[in-house]
Amino acid sequence: MPIELLGMIATTAGSESKELDGPVVDAAFVRDFSRAHEDAGFDRVLIGYSASSPDGFAVASAALHSTERLKVLIAHRPGFVPPTIVARKLATLDHLTGGGRVAIHHITGGSEADQRRDGDFSEKADRYRRTGEFIDVLRKSLTEEEPFDHEGEFYQFEGAYSGVKPATPEGIPVFFGGLSGGAVEVGAKNADVYMLFGEPLADVAEHIRVIRAAAAKEGRTIEFSLSTRPIIADTEDEAWGKADRIYAHAEQLLESKKTGNTLAFAEPLHRERTAVSADRLQEHAKRGDVHDERLWLGITRLTGPSGNSTAPVGTPAQVAEALLKYYDLGVTRFLIRGFDPLEDVRDWGKELVPLLRDGAKLRDEINQERVA
User: Fold this and answer.
1) Are the C-beta atoms of residues 33 and 60 closer than 8 Å to each other?
2) Is 334 exposed, middle or buried (0-12, 13-18, 19+ CB in 10 A)?
3) Three-state DSSP class for 8?
4) If you average pLDDT over residues 222-243, what whole number do you get?
5) H/E element holding 103?
6) Burial status of residue 168 (CB atoms within 10 A of its CB: 0-12, 13-18, 19 or more)
7) Dihedrals φ, ψ of 26, to 5°?
8) pLDDT per position as a tens digit, 311-326
């Protein structure tokens, strides 16, 4: 099936190896970053979430109005805004931007400190149950033609109803991520797309097997997205040299106690255990910097648990083939973002994006011939 390529935009430039530059919200940068993704052939961009970052719905609106066809994926933490309100916000934005361009990504919250910045002191296990209930009410709000009541563990509504529904029959796609105890149960039951970090192939294959089995018990099927940070160059040696330079710049930023994290505008109050999915990346990094020939975890090891930080390294053709091995496992969406965010997007559009699309299409044709 056709793959979907996702990027990630921010309101200011920065990364692990690139110090934050410019105002926190740079409208021109958002416009240029969004258009760069559209010009490079991306389908959708993620707008991240933290308790110190700019509002994702506003950023999404700016991105959508700066482009013609680019879709958005708005990261959201259930628990702060009622699902009935979020449903109306999503459906309204969907209508105002041409229809079919809006999706939501539910992040239950791996950082206790970041949750508490917005006043949420609930336990993680409770948050996963709350996320499941949130999605259930969200879907009802987006689809029910009559007012409905709901009385659950975390939410209670009487006569809930949204006069605005999604602009297209496909509705608002629901993305979800997380690998801790309650995550798989909630995601398998509620998500359209399950987002995974770029772990080694064998680990991703096992996650897909477990999640598919859980979804099957609910009578559902689910799709998968994989998040990585490709590093490409004309030759493999040049690509690994580029990775070394990225590492050196990231190390300098850490030593100077500066940040390039476009979601972290406030320092953590204290060290804490992070999300299971991020912890797993650290476990892989301890076993070695390189897995599956070219999946580089140098930045993962250096910066600590920080989510999407693993990088396939090589020529565009080598990186495309490395990613398409995940396609063979069942991944149909790839979220890629760069260490030089804007320039990497422009660079990927020249070769990597076409190679990924052509490679997936060729694999599909070969599989069809085998079935025939």
Assistant:
1) no
2) buried
3) strand
4) 98
5) strand 102-106
6) middle
7) -115, 100
8) 999 999 999 999 999 9
In the block, residue with structure tokens 């912890």: 279
Name the token pair of 334: 């790839």
What are the respective helix, strand and coil percentages of the chain, to the nearest 5? 45, 20, 35
> CA-to-CA distance for 182 and 179, rounded, in angstroms?
8
The neighbour count for residue 100, using CB atoms within 10 Å, is 17
The residue count of the chain comes to 372
4-371: CATH, from 3.40.190.10, 3.40.50.11540, 3.40.50.720, 3.20.20.30? 3.20.20.30
Instruction: Report if pTM > 0.90.
Output: yes
Place of tokens 């006069």: 163
- Catalogue the long-range contacts made by 362-366 (C-beta closer than 8 Å, 24 or more residues apart): 363/324, 363/327, 363/328, 364/1
Confidence of residue 272 (pLDDT cuts 50, 70, 90): very low
Q: Which residues, including other chains, have CB under 8 Å from residue 348's CB and lie 6 or more apart?
A: 40, 230, 232, 336, 338
User: Could you tell me the two tokens for 173?
Assistant: 């796609």
pLDDT (0 to 100) of residue 267: 62
**Contact by Cβ (8 Å): 45, 6:** yes
Residue 141 pLDDT grade (very low, low, confident, very high; cuts 50, 70, 90):
very high
Q: Sketch the domain layout of the chain as residue ranges.
A: 4-371
Question: Which among 97, 84, 169, 95 has a CA at the least distance from the CA of 133?
Answer: 84
Residue 336: which of 325, 328, 349 has the closest Cα? 349
Q: Cβ neighbours of residue 283 under 8 Å, at least 6 residues apart?
A: none
Top-confidence residue, 128 or 201: 201
Local confidence band at 118 (pLDDT 50, 70, 90 cut-offs):
low
pLDDT level of residue 119 (50, 70, 90 thresholds): low
